[in-house]
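Curious: can you check?
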Amino acid sequence: MEMKQAVEALGALAQDSRLAIFRLLVRAGPKGMAAGAIGEQLGIPAPTLSFHLAFLARAGLATSRQEGRFVLYAADFNGMGRLLAYLTEDCCGGKACLPGQAVPVRRAKGGAHA
């Protein structure tokens, strides 16, 4: 991944609605979700949702596919992996390190840290 692509992907995630959409798609896994279900779960109107999904797709973080009369969106796990690899390629000065040591922060309802 080139720096320009990384900046575009990070920029796509630097907006609260797009970050929420991306995290929802990551949770949904490779099967993805219908656009309508994404909008319902996040309370985002269809035109706004379409804009954000297209932005994530251009940044290499989401894919879409037609399934019957529905358009399903999924996180682009290859794109996410390329971004993570770019961000961590010089981790620990090129020496092996243990990236699994970070403890995820669980949030309580309403967005407060637990």
Notes: The two ends are 35 Å apart (CA to CA). DSSP finds five helices and three strands in the chain. The chain has a mean pLDDT of 86.
